[in-house]
Structure formats: structure tokens, C-alpha cells
Design goal:
It contains ten helices and two strands, in the order H-H-H-E-E-H-H-H-H-H-H-H. It comes from Cohnella herbarum.
């Protein structure tokens, strides 16, 4: 079925709406596979990045699932007839968690650069290796991401900071999962960029550059925050 040709301005929103309508009309029933990014881009006459953005938003809204290297599939359970689109995490609460993380984790990274020892570096390097090995496995990569941040806190050797990070464990895991859904994590290039940011934080800690470690952690968390503002679907509490 041919899709309506559109202009690139606000293209991702129009693409999202049309694909969602196709799903709602049962043209693509639950469990069915959508056309590839290349095919959709050709149908809509837009760039692939526009298609990826629309698919990422549809994933965050619960309409589709994206498998690494396996394509995009309509969710087996799509949003209800009442039009309410579920989100895994309240956007306002996610924002609050990110605000707290910035205050705590920048301090953790700064102190880690000052106090880290060889054992801390070895543990951080191991986690980075695990993240790299899990680029095509969202669940494993997500867990490695979380452990990396906890290990940065451990490397600060400040018991209060470590305790505060541990007290945020559940909320951090939930917020990371949701922010990764809103990010274009289904694309390997996005996972690689995220990995690179963690490597840069590690590099500053390894070099004992306190200022740079804090700056890189801030840059990382601010990017996550921007993703939340830009990609979160409407009606999620913004």
C-alpha cells in the first residue's frame, strides 16, 4: 500500500501518524513486520533519519517493537481503544530522577578521577567491554550501563555518595530503560554513540582529570535530558 508523500518539515510526526493509522486499521496486525527503514523512506520520500525518529517514537508509545538487525514489528498488545498510550515511566518523574542524578553523578565522576585506584579502573574497563559486546542486546547493554554508573560512584570512595546512588537503584534502572526507549536505541549507531560517551567518562577518570570527568558526565546526562524533552510523546506528563 502506497503511503502519502510528504515534505520533510515535521515529517517524523506525519510518518508516525500514518503508520499508526495503518496499524489501527489492521493493515499491519499485531506481530506483523513493518517495511524496512529504506522501504519506508522511499515510500514517504523522506530521509532515513525521519523514519527512524518516527519508529523510535512509536516504540516509546507502545505501538511497535524494534529488534536489532531483525526489523520493526507491531506490538502484540497495542495501546487501548481509549486512545491512551501507555508509557513505562512518568515523564515528570523521569525528569526529577535526571535532575538528582546530575547533582550526584557529577560529584561522583569528579571524585572518581581524583581517588580511583587500579582495581576501580579494571572494573570500569570490564563493564565497558560488556557494553560493547552487548551492543546488539538492549537488555544486557542497559544493565551494563547501570553498573557502570554505580562503579563510578564506588570509585569516588565516598560512602555517602555511594549510599545515595544505591538508594536510587530502582528509579535509576526504570529511568534508564525509559530514556533508552526514547533514544533511538534500536539503531546500532545510537548504541555506539552511547558507549563512546561512557568511554570518554572513563578516559577522564583514568587520566585523573577531575574537571573533565565532571564535564563529560554532565554532557552525558544533559544529552539524556534533551532526548527526553524532544522524543517523549505528547500526553506523558510534560
Amino acid at each position: 500500500m502506497a503511503f502519502q508523500k510528504i515534505k520533510t518539515q515535521r515529517g517524523s510526526e506525519i510518518v508516525l501518524q500514518q503508520i499508526r493509522e495503518q496499524i489501527q486499521s489492521n493493515l499491519y496486525p499485531p506481530g506483523s513486520k513493518l517495511p524496512t527503514v529504506v522501504e519506508l523512506a522511499a515510500s514517504f520520500e523522506v530521509g532515513r533519519s525521519t523514519i527512524r525518529e518516527a519508529l523510535s517514537a512509536l516504540k516509546a508509545m507502545g505501538w511497535v517493537t524494534i529488534r536489532h538487525g531483525g526489523g520493526t514489528y507491531v506490538s502484540l498488545q497495542t495501546p487501548g481503544e481509549d486512545g491512551i498510550e501507555p508509557t513505562a515511566y512518568n515523564t515528570e518523574l523521569l525528569q526529577e530522577v535526571l535532575e538528582v542524578r546530575k547533582f550526584i553523578e557529577i560529584g561522583c565522576a569528579t571524585l572518581a578521577a581524583k581517588r580511583r585506584n587500579d582495581e576501580d579502573l579494571a572494573e570500569l574497563k570490564t563493564i565497558l567491554d560488556e557494553m560493547e559486546a552487548a551492543l546488539d542486546n538492549e537488555g544486557e547493554s542497559e544493565q551494563a550501563d547501570f553498573r557502570f554508573h554505580l562503579l563510578v560512584a564506588n570509585a569516588s570512595h565516598n560512602s555517602l555518595l555511594i549510599s545515595m546512588m544505591e538508594s536510587l537503584t530502582e528509579r535509576m534502572q526504570e529511568s534508564m530503560k525509559e530514556s533508552r526507549r526514547l533514544w533511538f536505541f534500536a539503531e546500532r549507531s545510537s548504541a555506539e554513540k552511547l558507549l563512546q560517551e561512557h568511554k570518554e567518562i572513563y578516559g577522564a577518570i583514568e587520566a585523573k582529570n577531575e574537571e573533565l570527568a565532571g564535564e563529560r558526565m554532565m554532557r552525558h546526562l544533559v544529552k539524556v535530558e534533551k532526548v527526553l524533552y524532544v522524543k517523549a510523546p505528547q500526553g506523558t506528563g510534560e
